[in-house]
Amino acid sequence: MKAISVHRMGNVTAYEDPDSLIDFLSEQLRAGALTVVLGAGASVGFELPNWDKLVERIGVKAGVTPPAGLSPEDAAEFFLVDAYANDRHRFAIAVQEALYATADLSLAKLSANPLLSAVGTLAMASSRGSVSTIVSFNFDDILELYLSQFGHDAESIAVMPAWKSRADVRVLHPHGLLPSDGTEPPARGIVFTKIDFDEIVGDSKDVWRSHMVDLFSTHTCVFIGVSGNDDNLTNI
Fold first, then answer.
1. Helix (H) and strand (E) counts in the chain
2. Is 1 a residue whose pLDDT tops 80?
3. Backbone phi, then psi, for 40, in 5-degree steps?
4. What is the pTM of this model?
5. What is d(CA 21, CA 146) in angstroms, rounded to the nearest whole number?
6. If 0-12 CB within 10 Å is exposed, 13-18 middle and 19+ buried, where does residue 228 land?
7. Order of strands, edge to edge, in the sheet holding 169-172?
8. Could you report the per-residue pLDDT of 198-234, keeping only the tens digit for each?
9. What is the rounded distance in angstroms from the CA atom of residue 143 to the CA atom of residue 173?
10. N or C: which end of the chain has fewer CB within 10 A?
11. In angstroms, rounded to a whole number, what is the distance separating the alpha carbons of residues 198 and 188?
């Protein structure tokens, strides 16, 4: 495999050439310089509800109908204020229950998911190299559950700063984590409503932001299921 420099990949045409792109990504994987970033589309690929469906489930559970025409972020904020009296912890628990309401988390089901298998394979150490840090802008821990069932040590990070560990892979959750085992989420809740995004976007003092900037500046990132509509991610 020929060596391909980062500078050469600065030419957009290099990304349009499958051979050059595969060689470059392989080289980055072997060097430990590859990071996977998961967006909402990845959770859909893991057979979890998309953002619109998740918001709809929360409304049904709360027995509240939001005003017509609201964005998912604004509808989520409406539920937080109207149905949960701004109690972020209770609201996060409601989101958690709605997120996994119809999920099949059996090993057979997880193993049959091609996207989950592909991402999991990148994270599993081998002679070809591996991805040691994955960023998930989703709340679920499906990837960690999948890896753990194969004996892989996957650590979920939902609070920063976090001590360095010897885990095989660290899965970062900048927007919060809602564990699939029913463990209650942190009292601070999750980044889900419009006001949540307003509080963190562009905040140079936010520890998560500085960590993400450093990670994105030093690694080649493969974005999966990212639409470009996440205000926090695009701002970073």
1. 12, 5
2. no
3. -60, -35
4. 0.89
5. 28
6. exposed
7. 154-157, 169-172, 133-136, 34-38, 220-224
8. 888 877 788 888 899 999 999 999 999 887 777 778 8
9. 12
10. N
11. 16
